[in-house]
């Protein structure tokens, strides 16, 4: 029975979100070859787009995709003439449905994909490599998206991913779930994966959609599982609070035409009050544990925005102070830029502009569109419109999503028209 191509595409997209990590992990565990696993998984999804319109969408897409990927792996291994034992092992693979809510294993991790993330975040790898590899292998983000998350070039990130895979293979690192007593050493990597997964969903790297809701929802779902699994881990609660406080504002970030709405112009009546309330409670609980960390500080910043009745009520001085605290945990140029924005809002654009100029002189954020965009906003607020127009043009050349480009074009037109 044939299926409508639109329905098929939707089914394949849904299967990618739900099954990609599971299919890849199955092949990695059996073949020990990360590149082969990804290649065969990609081939399986491509085959689904060819076959499902003709044969119909299967009742169990994950089983179909796992079987297709397995068959592809068998073909590749047969051509490579690897050992017969390995070939029999791959050929014997069968699809295992998602486990029940709680499964008895050494880890105690009750979610399949979260277990896979813990497995991938091996301490023998650098934290950046763990996060990048997990985002690529299990979350299905492409190299360009991961490179954007790390503010690195795509070729650089591709090389890092290759090195991480080779290190796993050369060192003989087992691809298995660690026992419960080893989970804490892998928790920072898992937190990093979930954080960047949410960020990619909340502010997409490129394309027509600024917000990719499915990634946000998946990151929040997994963060809930992790917070429940590790109730004494303050940063797990802080990360979930951070996600909820940001996600609460999601629907107000774009207008009916899909254009970007700045925080100060958003209709706060559209914000999700339930998520804000839950996020505030989670943050309070996390802070009471006396184990400060970067996710809790970022959640506190988000709470300052989310709980302000109006834009004018925002406590920018407190936010600037929180960014100073955050810089102790995360001494990154992006944090420096956000601190500059907060100072500019608390003390005026003339106070923020030198901080932006220092960042530009350092070259740390070269190619990052929000740096010239911030300078342009400060210049616009100061009435220096010709200079603002130049900065908006620079930001426009660097922006990668349609919504951001439309917003910058509007700002550029306003600045150029009044100059």
Please explain how this structure is put together.
The protein has helices at 5-31, 34-55, 61-80, 84-91, 112-120, 127-137, 143-149, 154-171, 183-202, 213-229, 234-247, 273-288, 294-306, 316-329, 333-347, 349-362, 370-381, 385-398, 402-418. The chain is mostly helical and 419 residues long. Among the domains are: 1-96; 343-419, Serine Threonine Protein Phosphatase 5, Tetratricopeptide repeat (Alpha Horseshoe), CATH 1.25.40. It is globular and about 70 Å long. The termini are far apart. Residues 95-104 and 205-211 have low confidence and may be disordered.
Main pleated sheet: none
Helix-strand topology string: HHHHHHHHHHHHHHHHHHH
Point out poorly predicted stretches.
95-104, 205-211
Over the alpha carbons, how many angstroms does the gyration radius reach? 23 Å
Structural class: mainly alpha
Shape: globular
Please render the helix and strand layout as text.
Layout: H1 5-31, H2 34-55, H3 61-80, H4 84-91, H5 112-120, H6 127-137, H7 143-149, H8 154-171, H9 183-202, H10 213-229, H11 234-247, H12 273-288, H13 294-306, H14 316-329, H15 333-347, H16 349-362, H17 370-381, H18 385-398, H19 402-418
Helix pairs in contact: 1-2, 1-3, 2-3, 5-9, 6-8, 6-9, 7-8, 9-10, 9-11, 10-11, 11-12, 11-13, 12-13, 13-14, 14-15, 15-16, 16-17, 17-18, 18-19
What is the structure about, briefly put?
This protein is mostly helical and 419 residues long.
Key terms for this structure?
0% strand, 69% helix, 419 residues, Serine Threonine Protein Phosphatase 5, Tetratricopeptide repeat
């Amino acid at each position: 029975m044939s299926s409508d191509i639109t329905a098929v595409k939707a089914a394949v997209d849904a299967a990618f979100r739900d099954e990609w990590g599971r299919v890849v992990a199955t092949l990695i565990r059996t073949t020990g070859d990360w590149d082969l696993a990804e290649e065969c998984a990609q081939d399986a999804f491509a085959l689904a787009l060819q076959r499902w319109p003709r044969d119909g969408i299967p009742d169990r897409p994950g089983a179909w995709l796992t079987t297709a990927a397995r068959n592809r792996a068998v073909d590749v291994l047969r051509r490579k003439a690897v050992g017969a034992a390995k070939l029999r092992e791959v050929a014997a693979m069968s699809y295992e449905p998602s486990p029940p809510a709680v499964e008895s294993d050494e880890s105690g991790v009750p979610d399949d994909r979260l277990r896979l993330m813990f497995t991938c975040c091996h301490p023998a790898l650098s934290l950046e490599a763990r996060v990048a590899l997990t985002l690529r292998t299990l979350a299905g983000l492409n190299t360009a998206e991961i490179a954007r998350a790390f503010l690195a070039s795509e070729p650089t990130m591709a090389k890092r991913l290759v090195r991480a895979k080779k290190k796993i293979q050369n060192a003989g690192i087992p691809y298995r779930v660690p026992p419960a007593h080893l989970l804490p050493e892998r928790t920072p990597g898992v937190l990093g994966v979930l954080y960047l997964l949410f960020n990619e969903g909340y502010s997409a790297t490129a394309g027509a959609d600024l917000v990719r809701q499915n990634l946000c929802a998946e990151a929040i779902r997994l963060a809930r599982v992790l917070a429940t699994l590790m109730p004494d881990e303050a940063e797990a609660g802080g990360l979930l609070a951070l996600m909820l406080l940001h996600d609460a504002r999601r629907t107000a970030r774009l207008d009916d035409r899909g254009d970007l709405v700045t925080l100060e112009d958003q209709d706060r009546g559209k914000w999700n009050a339930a998520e804000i309330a839950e996020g505030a409670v989670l943050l309070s609980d996390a802070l009471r544990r006396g184990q400060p960390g970067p996710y809790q500080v970022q959640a506190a910043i988000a709470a300052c925005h989310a709980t302000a009745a109006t834009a004018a009520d925002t406590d920018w001085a407190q936010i600037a102070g929180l960014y100073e605290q955050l810089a102790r945990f995360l001494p990154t140029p992006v944090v420096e830029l956000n601190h500059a924005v907060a100072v500019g809002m608390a003390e005026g654009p003339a106070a923020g502009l030198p901080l932006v100029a220092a960042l530009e002189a350092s070259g740390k954020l070269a190619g990052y569109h929000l740096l010239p965009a911030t300078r342009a906003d400060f210049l616009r607020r100061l009435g220096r419109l010709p200079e603002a127009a130049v900065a908006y043009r620079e930001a426009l050349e660097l922006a990668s999503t349609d919504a951001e480009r439309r917003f910058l074009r509007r700002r550029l037109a306003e600045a150029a028209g009044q100059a």
